[in-house]
Write a structure and sequence with these properties.
alpha+beta; Aminopeptidase; 2 domains; seven-stranded mixed beta sheet; 7 strands; 19% strand
């Protein structure tokens, strides 16, 4: 993960291109441009992003860069409000791409500058993104654009069952199957990781408890 404060950055001369908002008519061109830089098609991703942006346009920033009337690049950002209880407004750069012939000529920086200008107007203080560590070209561009490694660790694992056998647990009577969530003795991460902790779907009756738990961790009242 990388993060960038939204102050404007000056770069060298850029190619004589113009920026404009993206529209639904640009979808196929965006998909084609992305396909030249991505090992697999992301049509579903762009289609879902377009639908979300159409439903809530105030939450997204979509910018295209054109050579004359031809779209030759794009950038898409999404606003993040209070994620994990954080109060500051941030945005995620979800996608950026430029035609091969215009790469390394300032088009990407021009796109990013247009995105940052809109985000600053919206009161967004930081822009962040995620990138494959093996994508050296994109990493170089982001580093040259002022992005830095963010102090965040992302953990990931497959959803397949764990191969390690669960430890033998002592017999329990029926009353002991009810979990006391207020007791630290119930924090058995080994059992939790192997789905031995009872879980259920939440109901409307759980709303009060959810608000209390969220308030304890976030320090905010998000009951509204």
């Amino acid at each position: 993960m990388a993060i960038l404060q939204t102050e404007q950055t000056k770069y060298g001369e850029t190619t004589p291109l113009s920026t404009r908002p993206l529209s639904s008519l640009d979808l196929e061109t965006v998909i084609a441009l992305d396909a030249t830089n991505s090992p697999q098609s992301r049509r579903g991703f762009f289609e879902s992003r377009l639908k979300a942006a159409t439903d809530t346009p105030q939450e997204y920033v979509y910018v295209g860069i054109c050579e004359g009337e031809t779209l030759v690049g794009f950038a898409m950002a999404r606003l993040l409000h209070g994620e994990f209880g954080q109060a500051n407004a941030r945005a995620s750069l979800d996608a950026i791409g430029v035609a091969h012939g215009l790469q390394n000529h300032g088009a990407g920086h021009q796109l990013l500058a247009a995105v940052k200008q809109i985000l600053t107007h919206k009161g967004v203080s930081a822009l962040e993104t995620q990138v494959d560590w093996a994508d050296r070209t994109l990493l170089g561009f982001l580093g040259n654009s002022g992005f830095k490694l963010a102090p965040r660790i992302i953990l990931r694992r497959q959803t397949d069952p764990l191969e390690t056998a669960a430890p033998d647990l002592p017999p329990q009577d029926a009353d002991s199957l009810e979990v006391d969530h207020s007791s630290p003795d119930g924090d058995d991460f080994t059992a939790l990781s192997r789905d031995l902790i009872p879980v259920r779907s939440m109901t409307k009756a759980d709303l009060g408890a959810i608000i209390r738990i969220d308030g304890k961790h976030s320090g905010q009242d998000r009951s509204a």
